[in-house]
Amino acid sequence: MNTFNRLNTLDVTTDMPVQANPLINDVDNNGLDRLSVSAQKYMHNLDGQNSVCLDPDTSVDEATLVLNKTHVASMFVAQDGALLGIISQARLGSRHILKEAQLRGCQRRELVATDVMLPLKTLKQVSLTELRTASAGDVLVTMEAHGLDYLLVTAPETGQICGYFDLVELIKAGGRSVNQLRPAEHFNDIVVSLLHHSEL
Fold first, then answer.
1. pLDDT tens-digit map of 159-168
2. Whole-number Å distance between alpha carbons of 137 and 134
């Protein structure tokens, strides 16, 4: 049975630029157990020059169209080169959108990317240095422990974002369920959770 270790993470700071991943050719694709392979195998590499981002005022319908046309599951929201958050097809297709419209007192079609994205400040980051020896399973248990949908990766020399992990893809790779509940850090987190889950 494999044992995976949690990685050290940091809170994400604002105004984080993007750069290409310097370890992109260092990935080891061998391994029988899909979560025992190098974490780099499941990392989405970003290229600062060619990264496609959504504008903050992109409507949810336009965002869905862009994601479908570009065949990607997630995309960053950015303004003037500064990353603000991340948005996904799964989030756009979930009931979260209708709940958000209800909370804002508007129609679904009136929502824009910044209304429904996961803000960068709610995510965690891990250094690319740690990923040199980390397995995909290490990343999965780290994300599970923090209740993260995404984990950003930063280059140690510059602190710039060079990639990210998507929890859904790691769950599919591992073939097991995980606890996706985000631990509450403040009382306000509990209040917000209750407001977003009326069934509770």
1. 888 889 998 8
2. 8
In a domain, 199, yes or no: no
- Statement: the pTM of the whole predicted model exceeds 0.85: no
Percent composition of the chain: helix, strand, coil (DSSP 3-state, to 5)? 35, 20, 40
What is the tally of structural domains in the chain?
1
Q: What's the pLDDT tens digit per position in 47-89?
A: 654 567 899 999 999 999 999 998 888 899 999 888 899 999 8
One-letter amino acid at 71 equals H
User: Assign residue 147 a region: left if phi > 0, alpha if psi is -120 to 50, beta otherwise?
Assistant: left
89 occurs within a structural domain: yes
pLDDT of residue 197: 46
Q: Is residue 200 part of a domain?
A: no
Contacts of 73 (CB under 8 A, 6+ apart): 67, 88, 89, 90, 166, 168, 169
Q: Give the containing element (helix H, strand E) for 191.
A: helix 187-196
116: domain CATH number? Answer: 3.10.580.10
> How would you classify the pairing of strands 10-11 and 82-88?
unpaired
40: helix, coil or strand?
helix
Q: How far apart are CA 161 and CA 167, in angstroms?
A: 17
Count, in order, helices (H) and strands (E) of the chain.
8, 9
Task: Identify the domain containing residue 38 by its residue range.
Answer: 10-19+27-194
